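Good morning,

Attaching, inline, the backbone tokens for the sequence recovery test we're adding to the shared suite. The designed sequence is right after.
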């Protein structure tokens, strides 16, 4: 008889080594992320001010100080306005530019150039131009909101649709006027279509800083109501939030911030989408107590750091707004195709 081979006890399986946890910004508490972003923003500002400092130090520092101040104001205005707009619309792809304010700014510049001439537009007092542009953009938004929210429909989705249609109309009229004007005037006009931080008036910067600070303070005071609005209209009404009044106030503040930012340096369409999307990635709780300062600091780091790289690496070969629009446009297409953020 063949002998049977007794099988021994099975060898114990070797336990796999525990995987090392990968580092992620979402693992950090929001307070730590804020500290890191604040340090990065201060470092970027300090490097921008003192790098390659030669010649008349006082004059160079004053020029760079105005430029840095403009970038801080624009970063705060665009970041806060985009965050507020996405909160009240419950959509993390939309930006305030969808309301047609950027198109209205281009139409204003085109209309003034066509009627007065490029020379008159460029030589006009900066404070007068700034006041006219802000007044027209805020007035347009106020009329649109009043018409939509005091009518029978009171639909936020209809408001967005009307904004898209009017933005398309403004772009069409601007294109028609640009085709009718002289080529030399159109070349001068083109420079106004891209955001520039190199020719900011200090007086206008001071006014813009006060307006943006007031808007940011309003957003901070409304941070708890914004957390409730982010849950949806029905839940916000059930817990006692005056939805119509709150949304109208937030949209007016958004329009004011976007109007001031656009009139100060020019349109930056996708910059808000870029910094707010990064802010959501860094903040775990989606609380506006953390998101509001986070998107502002991210905007400062992006603008100051981007301008620093543009000047020292590329040697002013391109405009910072072109890089921002290119990166933000890619991010917009990614979010649109992904379909996860609604």
């Amino acid at each position: 008889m063949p002998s049977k081979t007794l099988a021994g006890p099975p060898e114990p399986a070797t336990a796999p080594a525990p995987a090392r946890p990968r580092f992620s910004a979402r693992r950090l508490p929001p307070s730590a992320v804020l500290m890191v972003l604040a340090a990065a923003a201060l470092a970027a500002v300090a490097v921008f001010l003192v790098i390659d400092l030669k010649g008349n130090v006082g004059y160079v520092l004053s020029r760079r100080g105005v430029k840095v101040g403009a970038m801080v104001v624009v970063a705060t205005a665009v970041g806060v306005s985009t965050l507020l707009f996405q909160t009240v619309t419950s959509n993390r792809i939309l930006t305030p530019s969808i309301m047609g304010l950027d198109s209205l700014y281009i139409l204003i510049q085109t209309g003034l150039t066509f009627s007065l001439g490029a020379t008159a537009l460029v030589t006009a007092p900066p404070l007068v131009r700034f006041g006219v542009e802000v007044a027209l953009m805020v007035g347009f938004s106020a009329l649109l909101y009043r018409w939509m929210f005091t009518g029978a429909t009171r639909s936020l989705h209809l408001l967005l649709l009307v904004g898209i249609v009017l933005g398309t109309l403004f772009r069409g009229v601007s294109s028609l006027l640009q085709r009718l004007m002289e080529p030399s005037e159109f070349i001068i006009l083109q420079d106004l279509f891209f955001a520039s931080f190199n020719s900011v008036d200090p007086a206008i910067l001071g006014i813009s800083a006060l307006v943006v600070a007031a808007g940011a303070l309003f957003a901070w005071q409304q941070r708890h109501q914004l957390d409730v609005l982010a849950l949806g209209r029905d839940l916000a009404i059930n817990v006692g939030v005056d939805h119509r009044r709150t949304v109208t106030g937030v949209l007016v503040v958004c329009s004011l911030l976007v109007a001031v930012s656009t009139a100060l340096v020019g349109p930056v369409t996708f910059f808000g989408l870029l910094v707010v999307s990064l802010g959501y990635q860094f903040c775990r709780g989606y609380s506006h107590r953390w998101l509001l300062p986070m998107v502002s600091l991210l905007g400062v780091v992006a603008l100051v750091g981007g301008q620093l790289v543009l000047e020292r690496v590329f040697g002013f070969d391109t405009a910072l707004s072109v890089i921002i629009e290119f990166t933000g446009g890619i991010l917009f297409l990614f979010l649109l195709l992904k379909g996860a953020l609604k």
